[in-house]
User: What shape does this take?
Amino acid sequence: MTSSSLRLGVDIGGTFTDVVLEKEGVVFSAKILTTYAAPEDAIIDGLKQVCAKADVTPSDIGQIIHGTTLATNALIERRGAKTALITTEGFRDVIEMRTESRFEQYDLNLTLPEPLLPRQMRFTVGGRIDASGETLVDIDRAEVEEVVEKIAEAGFESVAVGLIHSYLNPAHERLVRDVLAERLPDVAVSISSDVSPQMREYERFNTVVANAYIKPLMASYLGRLEDRLRAENVTCPVFLMHSGGGIISIESAAEFPVRLVESGPAGGAVFAAHIAARYGLDKVLSFDMGGTTAKICLIKNQTPKTSRVFEVARTYRFKKGSGMPISIPVIDMVEIGAGGGSLAHVDALRQIRVGPESAGSEPGPACFGRGGTRPAVTDADLILGKLDAAHFAGGSITLYPDTAREAMNDHVATQLDMDTVEAAFGVAEVVDENMANAARVHAVENGEDLAEYTMIAFGGAAPLHAGRLCEKLGVARLLVPPGAGVGSAIGFLRAPFSFEANRSAYMKVSGFDERQIATLLAELRAEATRFVRTCDAHSPIETEYKAYMRYTGQGWEIPIALTQAQAEAPDAEIFEALFTEQYTKLFGRPVAGMDVEITVWAVNATTPPQPVARESGASGGRPATASGTRRVFEAAAGAFRDAAHYARFDLDCGATVDGPAVIVEDETTIVIPSSRTATAQPDGCIDIIQIGSRP
Assistant: This one.
């Protein structure tokens, strides 16, 4: 075996760090509690475990692909670098003024989130670029030098530069960057025309500030990780998963760490898309539930839905509009604070609430016996019989049922005059309903009917809750793939090398300029291709083109996919027809008599996806033989039932399992309700179907 054939995937989550090693098509995995103080410690621990399981040495590894929540957590917890913003005179307060949108329209006491940087950390310079990219007022280098001197005296570690209309003409931003480099060579600098060259100054300024805020932190972490890997004789290249579902070099990740903000969940969506392609599924609901959050994503035609703006650190129960907008390419998903570690409490109205606060890995849920005293979703699952206290995480973590019951009693049951089981049932139902509501809203916003979808569930906690979620959503079919407990890390190994370049260039269809468009798209293609070549110098590169379009006067655009021929020879009538078709599909009908405008152009360069062997699927054969039974609380019945117990890897291809049942493996447990029946597939997937329906 050559070392290049060994690939390692690493996903640092809020509770667990997942490590997977792929050897000759076989995946070896380990699940370790995340070490917050030094995240690289858990990676090295997991690396050693999977190498031992695969009977290889760390030096045999040929490639590492890494995703992490560190960037997200730094923004949420506000523990980034001491950062300054330099912006255009008159625009100092843009990131604090936000937009005119109110995410709670009727809340008279609405509290807006604080900006990432307070006012005293924001500086202004003269000079002005207009909306067409022309220079109205030249920038004064001497004035810039005065501002940089103030920044030097204050001891800032990182500087963000966001000037008005720099996405059209970056000359002023580059001058500021040059002055900073000359005066403060050791200070990290981010300019918005490189990080997010798109219109809308609030989103653009916020994105460059976020990039600058986490840049020193991520550079330090990536440097420490490389040092630790070298100490273990691991000298292979390290790549990072980015939020758009592709892989970039460690150098690009260090320069643009804001693109790592949703890297872990993106890996999960890629994993689900790979399974969808294997089974020929065109409509899939990806459900990823880990220790801290749950992520739900729509996947159509084996491709996750993408967006170019998303929010982090929402302050109102993850309500859209209450967080920090980040304007980068990202897989579009809804993320809520509903994981195994999400903490439950009773509010002032005597209602059970779950999340978004999480117990994380330190101390973890009460049942971990690490000092946690508040009940989490994992505690509820243990009380309800969904988890085996002696075999959690393959027996590497012992659970303590008495501690879970005590926490549930103290914080939920006694306050609501319930017994322990009823309180645990309430916690489980609340978290399941929170996830179901999030999925319903996400589907409605995208004009989709979830009854037509197949759910693919992964993440350590998802298989425990997916059956009940399907009942709530009316989803008839559920697939739980092998390696579901470490699905995102496996997804890293399935992702292509890719990079999306985008740029704002406003144009109405009535003023369509074919030459300008063709030139712009060619420049974006060259930029995106250059980034991919830093990772892979030889593979062929495919390109995907998009134009973001809207009717004149509308506030937001919709993405319109273009073929290469349409990008190289743009035609106004074709562009308008494509927009009308997509707009009608989303909103029911076009708007007659209105001009159409294009605001943003994007080109994604990617290496070809891995070939996927189609799975024919096995129909149900003889019933599987249970190894025993377990008392499991069934939500639909509101009572405990005797559930048959099966070991996942003892199930033969075609073996069937009728609910209620549990199918156990090291990283997770699949709970099958009475309303479902399951069949083991040739590739190891468990295909769970509603009784009376057909796939």
